[in-house]
Amino acid sequence: MIQRTREQFIHLFEKEPLIVVSPGRINLIGEHTDYNDGFVLPAAIDKKIVYAIALNNTQQCNAHAVFTQETVSFHLNDVKPTPGWINYLMGVVYQLQERGLPVQGFDCVVAGDIPVGAGMSSSAAVEGGLVAGLNHLFGYGLTRMEMALIGQQAEHTFPGVQCGIMDQFANLHGKKDQVIRLDCRSLEYEYFPFNFPGYKVVLCNSMVHHSLASSEYNVRRRQCEEGVKAIQVKHPAVQSLRDANMFMLEEVKEQLPAKVYDRCNYVIAEIQRVQDATVLLKQGNLSEFGQLMYDTHEGLSKLYEVSCPELDFLVSLSREREEVAGARVMGGGFGGCTINLVKTEKVDDFVAYIKSRYQDQYGKAPEVYVTTIEDGVTVKENVRENA
Ligand code: GLA
Predict the structure, then answer these.
(1) Of all atoms in ligand 1, which is nearest to the CA of residue 35?
(2) pTM of this structure
(3) Which end of the chain is more exposed for a tag (fewer CB within 10 A), N or C?
């Protein structure tokens, strides 16, 4: 993909580009905890966005998308929310401009194999790849965490999703064969080897993508804040659900709408589950780790209500299979993928089973991806033939 992207760039823009490889992510456990100051356990994967990019000495930015074969352009004096995928690029440029960082015109070709709307953070990969490419071309000297925060702000201000930091963080901080536990409050993080030898991370794409996903996401965030406000009356030190516990939540149960109570109940439990899961990962305790994943799915489905019948069905299929240690919906929800820990030698059987049962039930084929854990965003100079 790197060579094809480079060649297309040279064909269109007649110069040698910089190459940026920007991965999607998985998250083993810790869903909807990031914007509640909790913990997450993500990793970057082998699905990626590739940029070929170079400066063009103008005030115009031109971007060619290989997936749509379309070239879109915008002027640096006219950066504003705009429909279509260009919005993600403009969001990044806007955030750089806001910080007073010099931006000049550039040309780029964008390719990729991260399925859109599948919960693997294609948007964070688009944002992270561009910010890293421009950081390199203009020599801003931004740290990876600064770049992640710029990507997150771009997402808030242009597509308008009030996301946490997990996706942009994992995209930029991934390390081969390591998962990362991030404390989303302090932004401290630690790498852990993916300590389940003989198991693969397999993603099953329900092929469902609800258009409500981003608005419902923002609703969930507000509901968590509502819970925190109620708890704060008696416990002013509580700044977020990270500081709350079940006793505090019970104290305000009668005052809260039932759904707000359920949302907070899920988040408080999930923040603890990530802590427990990290210990189990270190111990290599696969079966208990997998059980926590199933518990997360229950919470996401019944209390947080971000699953859907197709995802619940995929998880129920996984539960039937001995080769699966754990499974759950991954990412924001409302469609997208389940994440499954599957015994390597049985992956083919598992994939065949899922495909045939899902096809029978819903009349459509799910895509299934057997992933590997890879490095975060990588900038490559001088990528020639055979490189
Ligand atoms: C989306 C958001 C993340 C995170 C997850 C749910 O991927 O971008 O910040 O909140 O949903 O865990």
Answers:
(1) 10
(2) 0.95
(3) C
d(CA 64, CA 52): 10
Catalytic residues: 167
Q: What is the CATH number of domain 2-193+374-380?
A: 3.30.230.10
For residue 8, the 8-state DSSP code is H
Atom number, ligand 1, closest to the C-alpha of residue 161:
8
Å from CA of 27 to ligand 1 middle: 9
List ligand 1's pocket residues with C-beta within 6 A: 31-32, 34-35, 121, 163-164, 166-167, 331-332
Cα 382 to ligand 1 centroid, rounded to whole Å: 34
37 and 242 Cβ atoms separated by less than 8 Å: yes
Instruction: Render pLDDT for 229-243 as a digit per residue (tens, 0 to 9).
Output: 999 999 999 999 999
pLDDT digits (tens, 9 = 90+) for 9-68: 999 999 999 999 999 999 999 999 999 999 999 999 999 999 999 999 999 999 999 988
Give the number of the atom of ligand 1 that is nearest the alpha carbon of residue 332.
11
At the topology level, CATH places domain 199-371 in: Alpha-Beta Plaits (3.30.70)
- Residue 237 burial (C-beta neighbours within 10 Å; 0-12, 13-18, 19+): exposed
- What's the 192 CA to ligand 1 centre distance in angstroms? 21
